[in-house]
Automatic annotation (TrEMBL):
Any one GO MF annotation of this record: dTDP-glucose 4,6-dehydratase activity
Alphabetized NCBIfam families for the sequence: dTDP_gluc_dehyt (TIGR01181)
InterPro entries: dTDP_Gluc_deHydtase, NAD(P)-bd_dom, NAD(P)-bd_dom_sf, RmlC-like, RmlC-like_jellyroll, RmlC_Cupin_sf
Domain of life: Bacteria
Entry protein name: dTDP-glucose 4,6-dehydratase
Protein purpose: Catalyzes the epimerization of the C3' and C5'positions of dTDP-6-deoxy-D-xylo-4-hexulose, forming dTDP-6-deoxy-L-lyxo-4-hexulose.
EC number of this enzyme: 4.2.1.46
Pfam family, one: GDP_Man_Dehyd
Residue span(s) of domain NAD(P)-binding: 5-321
Amino acid sequence: MRTILITGGAGFIGSNLVRQLIRTEQYRVINVDKLTYAGNLFSLRDLESSPNYTFVQGDIGDGMLMLDLLHRYEVDGVMNLAAESHVDRSIGSPGDFVQTNVVGTYELLEATREYWQSLPEDKSASFRFIHISTDEVFGSLGDEGAFTESTPYSPNSPYSASKASSDHLVRAYHETFALPTITTHCSNNYGPYQFPEKLIPLIISKAADGKPLPVYGTGLNVRDWLHVEDHCTALRLIFESGRVGTTYNIGGGTEKSNLDVVHSICDTVDRLTSSGKKSSDQIEFVRDRPGHDFRYAIDSSKLSKELGWHPSVSFAEGIEATVKWYLSNQDWIESTRKHGYEGQRLGIDRNDGDDAAVITSSDMTDAAPNQNEDCTFEGVVFNKLGKYEDSRGWLIELFRNDEVPAGNEPVMAYMSQTLPGVSRGPHEHVDQSDLFGFFGPGDFRLYLWDSRKDSPTFGQRFTRIVGATNPQSVIVPPGVVHAYKNISLHPGIVFNAPNRLYAGHGKQEPVDEIRHEEADGSEYQLIDA
Ligand SMILES: Cc1cn([C@H]2C[C@H](O)[C@@H](COP(=O)(O)OP(=O)(O)O[C@H]3O[C@@H](C)C(=O)[C@@H](O)[C@H]3O)O2)c(=O)[nH]c1=O
């Protein structure tokens, strides 16, 4: 039985590939995944007891770990699926993509080369390094034509540029060190276990929830849809029989405009939920993605000719099965929400050049229903923070005592860093007012609950997304419970200037703070929307 090390095997394509390889009973699989936001062990729970399956949490960028695992499990091949993969996130946080997709692939190649060079002749000859890449490295097509294996690289997004860079490293390790590599380029995958930030799972879950369905620009952009099962079959064939030192394109042969895909999903959701509503009424044309590639299409004839592969899942049956899967796996969808992503729009507004975490204000309506409403809690005061920019940089005034409502005048100040997906609170003060400043880096979802029994808004909750893309100060008076969650991909900064000294003068008094997160069954839960 041959041993394959799969990187990124807790992700969408990775977990489907792991499942297919185990199902053949011809392979032992070592699955290494960093478990970032899109890595989800919930997707592999049915494999945990399989004797041919081992999971290791790890980062491909940890070369020592990768080398250790290659030796420890006497690996016969590596299939590299570990990657940041969402174009919109790459627009908001390109650095994460360079780190994982370029530096990570380099470290993995180095470890693999050292291991492979230590193998005896027979194992060395049959060893394979399969690098899974994307058709986006070829850029965008017009109305005609399709990508072939000789199409020149022309990446347009930080995501596709990072994948293109990783492809070139893989090629160089073959050309320079003779490492037996093969690179594949696929079109858009869909199917079970896809993180609901990508078009198809995102639209399915929003259609089912009766939320607006965000279509970028005109919706006429075209993608070639490949069911993930067909993609995994192709990868297995390429691992077994592909020609070393070459590349293979893997396409679904199903080109559709985004609007057509969204309508197909709506019709299927309506039919399967027999809700009587027309989900397509929820379609909203929102601001286009910066640098939005118009069309991808793949010519898979080389793969078909050499290895006899053809897509077997039609789009009609694939989309039906996929909608059914998401509708009946709500628990899996819930498990994807622990990192703070709940379907909000991702991607940066090029105009502000800010290191905006990921959200653009005009598309927030479905992220926090009351996003555009004013907060009517007495004493809560939001103030849009203005950024003064010049050639030296920028300045933001956080507060002025001639503007702060009397009684809230700050007596101290602090700043805090909060990691991605992490929340602070819910907290409440008996006597203290806070004056928070949210101006980035990072975006936060701010939660407020009015717990003042004599308040006309007693028992009400208010949420608002604040931070890099919506710089705000907010005064929170005593009795208003407050919490905030970093919904960005990187650490976020918050400023606070309370009107009371923490622990009183000389830190000699009890702290005025009720930490509701420490109370079992607290009514103050950070649920959203
Ligand atoms: C998320 C989303 C996308 N779109 C559009 C953008 C795009 O034209 C189409 C698909 O968007 P996605 O972000 O799902 O996928 P896409 O932009 O085609 O990119 C994907 O391409 C494949 C080849 C890969 O390599 C993946 O990693 C991924 O990068 O739908 C919307 O209109 N609304 C939305 O809310």
